């Protein structure tokens, strides 16, 4: 029989918790691989995998997480999980039920949605929120704004855009992901797609709400977040592996997006 867990309760070891305005931000650790019994949660929540591996199944939906994969779980959704052989560490943000009264049904589509991965922007926002929580910088106003933005992502605004985008746009995104170790050349991508650069950049921004360059830089910062969990890897090497000109450039952009430098963020990630 499936277990229903109370708000803020998880099957792993909760190593840190911050309460803010009725919401709970928790860091949850599984030290070794194992299969978890079927269970659900009384509160909706967002989660980002900080380190390790994890596979989740809810009905026919199977999600295979890698570090900094981000997902939303509506309340009461039963699922079964398998923790990877090296364990797993998560950052969870519960969505208080009483907060929904303020939203006047605006996020009902998200609160009742099937589980699924969220966008790069959602991953980066949760990464930033994790850094804030570890440094005790979270306020009710900040958290409310972040949760609204995350729910907007989960409501499917970006997913709807993706289902309507042309085939060349999907190929463009694939090319950006394949070039994680180098800055994007708009002219090169447009030429490969047989498109005019002005048309390509205009349509890309209309679809994603960001320029090609902005999208690429944020994607590379997310990749850097994954690499920072490897404590033996020098920051300069991570900067090069994710396409930044040098460590100084990497540090400036990482700080602008995540809210603290990569060295400080690494310390947060490796301190269990």
Describe this structure in words.
The structure is a single chain. It is globular, with a radius of gyration of 19 Å. 34% of the residues are buried. It has 2 domains: 3-156, Jelly Rolls, CATH 2.60.120.10; 165-270, Homeodomain-like (Arc Repressor Mutant, subunit A, Orthogonal Bundle). Helix 3 (120-134) packs antiparallel against helix 4 (140-154), helix 3 crosses helix 9 and helix 10 (235-241) packs across helix 11. By secondary structure, it is of the alpha+beta class. Helix content is 45%, strand content 26%. Strands 1, 2, 3, 4, 5, 6, 7, 8 and 9 form a 9-stranded mixed sheet that branches.
Envelope shape? globular
Give the total of beta strands: 9
CATH superfamily of the largest domain: Jelly Rolls
**CATH architecture designation of the largest domain:** Sandwich
Summarize, please:
By secondary structure, the chain is of the alpha+beta class. It folds into 2 domains: 3-156, Sandwich (Jelly Rolls); 165-270, Homeodomain-like (Arc Repressor Mutant, subunit A), CATH 1.10.10.60. The chain contains 12 helices and 9 strands.
């Amino acid at each position: 029989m499936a277990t229903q867990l109370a708000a803020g309760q998880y099957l792993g070891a909760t190593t840190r918790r911050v309460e803010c305005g009725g919401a709970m931000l928790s860091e949850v650790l599984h030290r070794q691989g194992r299969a978890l019994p079927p269970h659900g949660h009384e509160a909706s929540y967002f989660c980002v995998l900080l380190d390790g591996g994890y596979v989740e199944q809810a009905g026919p939906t199977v999600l295979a997480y890698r570090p900094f994969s981000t997902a939303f779980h509506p309340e009461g959704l039963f699922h079964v999980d398998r923790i990877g052989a090296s364990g797993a560490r998560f950052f969870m943000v519960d969505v208080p039920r009483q907060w929904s009264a303020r939203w006047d049904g605006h996020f009902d589509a998200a609160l009742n949605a099937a589980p699924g991965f969220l966008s790069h922007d959602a991953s980066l926002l949760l990464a930033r929120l994790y850094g804030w929580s570890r440094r005790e910088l979270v306020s009710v106003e900040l958290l409310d704004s972040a949760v609204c933005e995350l729910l907007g992502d989960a409501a499917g605004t970006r997913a709807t855009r993706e289902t309507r985008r042309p085939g060349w746009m999907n190929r463009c995104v694939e090319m950006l992901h394949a070039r994680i170790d180098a800055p994007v050349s708009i002219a090169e991508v447009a030429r490969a797609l047989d498109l005019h650069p002005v048309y390509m950049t205009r349509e890309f921004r209309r679809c994603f709400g960001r320029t090609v360059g902005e999208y690429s830089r944020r994607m590379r910062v997310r990749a850097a977040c994954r690499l920072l969990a490897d404590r033996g890897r020098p920051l300069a090497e991570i900067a090069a592996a994710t396409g930044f000109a040098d460590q100084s450039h990497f540090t400036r952009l990482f700080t602008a997006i995540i809210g603290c430098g990569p060295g400080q963020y690494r310390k947060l990630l490796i301190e269990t």
